[in-house]
């Protein structure tokens, strides 16, 4: 009985000692820094063109280009995107506090205070907006508000539109419609 008790005590002590972490080893592991290659550009203006025709312009005070397995660009200090029509007149403008471009621009993610204004005078507001360049659509899964020049204001939970914001679709829509001579529909 005494041998079994001594053996169990010794075995338990070994388990406790074996599970103890060396403080120096923990500090060594926690002080390791992960290095990610990032190109930083300030005061950036990018012209978006197709077949030598200017389609838009992106302006951002800070562009971070992350060189990781799935590279992406980030604009943490805000951005403005101006789109132009075939006559080089401004057709719409997007402003956001934060942006990320993934998959070589196939998916653009805009966050925080996203505001889109169109040539028709419509204003779209949300906390997020995505652009899928393959499908050529804008969409949002956050609360949205669209205000028209006639005073019509529409709120909804989801949003999807073509890339010119000509055909917006809003889920769970509520709002106020202008009536009388102000109605533009």
Describe the structure.
The mean pLDDT is 81. The chain has 185 residues and is mainly beta. The protein has a single domain (36-174), classed as Sandwich (lipopolysaccharide transport protein A fold), CATH 2.60.450. It is 14% helix and 52% strand. The longest helix is centred in the first third of the chain and has 18 residues, at 2-19. It has helices at residues 2-19, 23-30, and strands at residues 37-50, 53-67, 72-75, 79-84, 90-96, 98-102, 107-118, 123-132, 137-140, 144-147, 153-156, 158-162, 169-171, 174-176. Strands 2-3-6-7-5-4 form a six-stranded antiparallel β-barrel. The N and C termini lie far apart (94 Å). The chain is globular. The relative contact order is 0.08.
Strand order of the largest sheet: 2-3-6-7-5-4
Topology, number of strands: 14
Give the ordered list of helices and strands: HHEEEEEEEEEEEEEE
The tally of helices reads 2
What is the arithmetic mean of pLDDT? Answer: 81
What's the CATH H-level superfamily name?
Answer: Lipopolysaccharide (LPS) transport protein A like domain
Radius of gyration: 27 Å
Unreliable residue runs: none
The CATH architecture classification is: Sandwich
Number of domains: 1
Structural class designation? mainly beta
- Overall 3D shape: globular
Distance between the termini: 94 Å
